[in-house]
Amino acid sequence: MGTTRVHQKLDIEAVLRPSRWASGMQVIGAIPAHVAGQLGLPPTARSVWLHEQTVAHITDQRNLTIADSEFVFEYMPAAVLHPMFCGREYKGDALRISLAEYVRSERRYLYLSATVVGAGDRDEVWVSSGYPMCEETLRRYLRCGRLQGVNAGGLEGGKTRTARRLQLGAATQMP
């Protein structure tokens, strides 16, 4: 049964994987309820969208190789569906959220930045950028408060494969 669950998760990520050749908008996934709650997002702001202009932005970033941008698109749904780290900040009037996931098979982190946009009676979350992130950058983001560990049911990291039991009120610290 555990094997079936893993295959289902992988299939969902494959279905949601964005195409760099698609025009218009693409849905990447839905932020889990416990992460949305931790970020203080409105209940209607869980679906994450990607616009073709953002695809071009990610592809054309000067410091990313083609392999780096492919890594971003390949694992973007994983960072949305089960992030290990998250954060929120305001830039002007806009609420920006950050999601980060460790991709074990690639031995690197993926960082996504998204903007919460008010759309009448409901809010939408739009990816604004994404890039591979090294451990040094992760530690810096954790120290400055840009990111924090996802907490789900008393587990740091929000996942059983990477999680450690937390004491209530304990600070997250990278080794």
Summary keywords:
175 residues; alpha+beta; 7-stranded mixed β-sheet; 3-stranded antiparallel β-sheet; disordered C terminus
Give a description of the structure.
The chain is α+β, with helices and mostly antiparallel strands and 175 residues long. The protein has one domain (21-159). The protein is 33% helix and 34% strand. The protein contains five helices and ten strands. It has helices at 2-16, 33-39, 52-60, 66-81, 135-144, and strands spanning 25-30, 47-51, 85-91, 94-103, 108-119, 122-133, 148-149, 151-152, 155-156, 164-165. Strands 1-2-6-5-4-3-7 form a seven-stranded mixed beta sheet. It has a three-stranded antiparallel beta sheet with strand order 8-9-10. The protein is globular. Mean pLDDT is 79; it is low at 158-175.
Topology:
Layout: H1 2-16, E1 25-30, H2 33-39, E2 47-51, H3 52-60, H4 66-81, E3 85-91, E4 94-103, E5 108-119, E6 122-133, H5 135-144, E7 148-149, E8 151-152, E9 155-156, E10 164-165
Parallel strand pairs: 2-6
Antiparallel strand pairs: 1-2, 3-4, 3-7, 4-5, 5-6, 8-9, 9-10
- Low-pLDDT segments: 158-175
Q: What is the approximate shape? A: globular
Q: How many separate structural domains?
A: 1
Q: Helix segment count?
A: 5
Say what oligomer this is.
single chain
Average pLDDT number = 79
In N-to-C order, the SSE pattern is HEHEHHEEEEHEEEE
* Major sheet: 7 strands, mixed
SS elements, strand count: 10
Strand order of the largest sheet: 1-2-6-5-4-3-7
As a percent range, the share of strand residues is 25-35%
Helicity, in percent?
Answer: 25-40%
Given the helix and strand composition, which structural class is it?
Answer: alpha+beta
Rg on CA atoms, Å: 16 Å
Determine the N-to-C terminus distance.
34 Å
